[in-house]
């Protein structure tokens, strides 16, 4: 069993050795342009392009809640685009986060991380624009990743002046 580590910093720049997987939550509408994805896009263009193509071709692929797309962005760095929110705004049907979808997606991330012998790095997924509660997300991470011995680091971003 591995523990979840919490650090202050940038989840797109993990400073550990070995293969790294950066996991984040995307919506099921094909929208990319707010929140953590901006940091991902500033660093690498491939995850956004791959996500948009995945959404565009969704009639013939697995795009949907709980789905994950793995994009290699550097020799030892992968980005996991996880579909874990339905829509983009809080409205009459509540917040966009879908905990079950995040749990399913984290299971896929765990499988791929185990194959690659990768550590997993992420912000507090599902808790920003998706409106989720960390008290509901953290147990999913413990169950799907840490329990399997996969090292997980959660990053709380520090704004620089």
Structure, described:
The chain has 161 residues and is of the alpha/beta class. 30% of the residues lie in helices and 24% in strands. It has 4 helices and 6 strands; from the N terminus they run ββααββαβαβ. The protein has helices spanning 36-43, 46-56, 99-116, 134-144; strands at residues 4-8, 20-27, 68-74, 77-85, 119-122, 152-156. The chain has a 6-stranded mixed sheet with strand order 1-6-5-2-4-3, sandwiched between helices. β3 and β4 form a beta hairpin. The chain is globular and about 40 Å long. It starts with a strand and ends in a 5-residue tail after the last strand.
User: Average pLDDT value?
Assistant: 93
End-to-end C-alpha gap: 38 Å
Give the H and E element order: EEHHEEHEHE
Give the overall silhouette.
Answer: globular
Q: How many distinct helices?
A: 4
Strand order in space, largest sheet: 1-6-5-2-4-3
Based on the structure, what is the oligomeric state of the protein chains? single chain
Q: Helices and strands: which structural class?
A: alpha/beta
> How much helix, percentage-wise, in residues?
25-40%
* Percent of sequence in beta strands: 15-25%
How many strands, which pairing sense, and closed or not: the largest β-sheet? 6 strands, mixed
Please provide the count of β strands: 6
**Spans where pLDDT lies below 50 across 5 or more residues:** none
């Amino acid at each position: 069993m591995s523990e979840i580590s919490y650090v202050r910093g940038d989840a797109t720049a993990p400073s550990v050795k070995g293969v790294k997987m950066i996991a984040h939550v995307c919506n099921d509408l094909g929208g990319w342009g707010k929140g953590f994805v901006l940091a991902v896009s500033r660093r690498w263009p491939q995850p956004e392009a791959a996500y948009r193509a995945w959404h565009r071709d969704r009639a013939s692929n697995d795009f949907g809640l709980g789905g994950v797309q793995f994009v290699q962005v550097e020799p030892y760095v992968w980005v996991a685009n996880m579909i874990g929110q339905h829509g983009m705004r809080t409205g009459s049907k509540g917040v966009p986060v879908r905990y079950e979808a995040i749990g399913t997606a984290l299971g896929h991330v765990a499988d791929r991380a185990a194959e690659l012998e990768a550590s997993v790095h992420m912000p507090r997924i599902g808790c920003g624009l998706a409106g989720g509660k960390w008290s509901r997300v953290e147990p999913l991470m413990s169950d799907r990743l840490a329990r399997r011995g996969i090292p997980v680091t959660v990053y709380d971003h520090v704004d620089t002046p």
